Amino acid sequence: MRFVFTRLFYALLALGLVPLSLSWGRPGLRWLTLAFDAGLLAAAFLDSRASRLPEGFEIVREFGGRFHIGAETEVLVRVSNHTPRAFKLKIKDEYPPEMTLLSPREAELSLGPQESQTLIYVLRSPRRGRFEFGRVAVRYVSRLGLVWREERAGEASAVKVYPNIRRAREAELKALGARSLVAAQRRAAWRGEGRDFESLREYVPGDELRHVSWSATARRGRLTTRQYQIERDQTVVVALDAGRLMTARIEDESKFDTAIHAALALMSAARRAGDHAGLIVFGRRVRAFVPPSKGREQVDAVLEALHAVEPELIEPSYTRAFEFIAANCKRRSFVVVLTDLVDEEGSRELLTSLRILRPRHLPLVVTIADRDLRASVRDAPASLHELFAQSVAEEIMFQRESALRLVEAQGGLALDVTTAALVPALLETYIRVKERGLL
After folding, report:
1. Is 334 helix (H, G, I), strand (E, B) or coil?
2. Which of 66, 130, 163, 275 has the greatest number of beta carbons closer than 10 A?
């Protein structure tokens, strides 16, 4: 039981000191003052014991929506008084210390009978994961007004902080620009070098002869061309490396978080294009798997799988990951591997393991650079330190480029990009694969 004295208590205590000032030569007044003070303390103690929150007093915590990394989310603490008694109280919510508080989390309320009021404050989470809210601290005036009594009310609760899907969608739309698949859906068909027959039309100069329909030409008496549309219902699988190199931080986030939002942007584009999209997260073992599917439910499943996964300081096993994909994805798929390479050993295992995916699947290996290494070796070194730094950068560039050229030699695709160029390059490659009918 916790309580603090109110101003009324201290006023009464000061009033009890008046007889003490007149007690010179009158010991009876001293005993009277002592009895008054003792009685006041006893009354305050009993008042605190008798002033518990009644059952009709309710505190409920609600949230304005899902928590997403870097996004602001409202927390609502609703206080309801279902009793015939009025309350004057102060409340203070216990939020997770890992989150950033953007507005006051405490308030002083005066609640009449059958009345409700709500405290609203805003939090922002700097990282994904699961976080705990404690119970709400309530301090209210006792029945006699002698003490502020403090209790914990409401229930503790846990929340999940998910990747920022809005950030991923904005990156998708920004990267695609005029080629946005949102605009493409508004047209009757998304036409390109696909393999799905869409319609026949009259031949125009520049059409490829392989698209001429000779049977339709014979019937109509004029050259007629087949028109195709980009295939739908294809499969995209994102393989997300959660190994040692993905723990590196660039500015305020890890490579792994950057790769997560790039994966979400790609999966959003695939969903809008009518394709199936799936996800696998791997380290030394497969840590999460969402089978390829489409629809809004798939987005929720992917966010749920990613909210608590963190990279580990171990080398990833590409062999186990690709064997898992080969065993669980029988349909030909566009397999996008978001990873990073520095040394020969990691490159060697990746190149050896790619044979597991070929020729059934089309792999795209995307390596995420810490920074633009080409820019760092563009100028002549001005000091011995810069000379050594450029030598290391050139060695890393050589090893990465050699590994990616070997990926292409095995029939796969390869990208080496910085974090800033990751989403645009990834989505452009996806559209190019669709337009050329590589799947």
Report:
1. strand
2. 275
140 and 148 in contact (C-beta within 8 Å)? yes
Domain boundaries, the chain: 2-49, 57-162, 191-229, 235-435
Residues in contact with 241: Cβ distance below 8 Å, sequence separation at least 6, in sequence order? 256, 259, 282, 283, 311, 316, 337, 338, 339, 340
* Contact in structure between 122 and 74 (CB atoms under 8 Å): yes
Write down the CATH number for the domain with range 57-162. 2.60.40.10
Domains 57-162 and 235-435 share a fold: no
Rounded to whole angstroms, the Cα distance separating 280 from 295 reads 18
Which one-letter amino acid corresponds to residue 184?
A
Tens digits of residue pLDDT in 345-401: 668 888 889 999 988 999 999 998 776 666 667 777 778 877 777 787 777 777 777
Mean pLDDT (the chain, rounded)? 84
DSSP 295: S
pLDDT digits (tens, 9 = 90+) for 224-260: 887 665 556 789 999 999 999 899 888 788 999 999 9
Give residues with Cβ within 8 angstroms of 196, minimum separation 6: 228, 229, 230, 231, 232
CATH class of 235-435: alpha beta
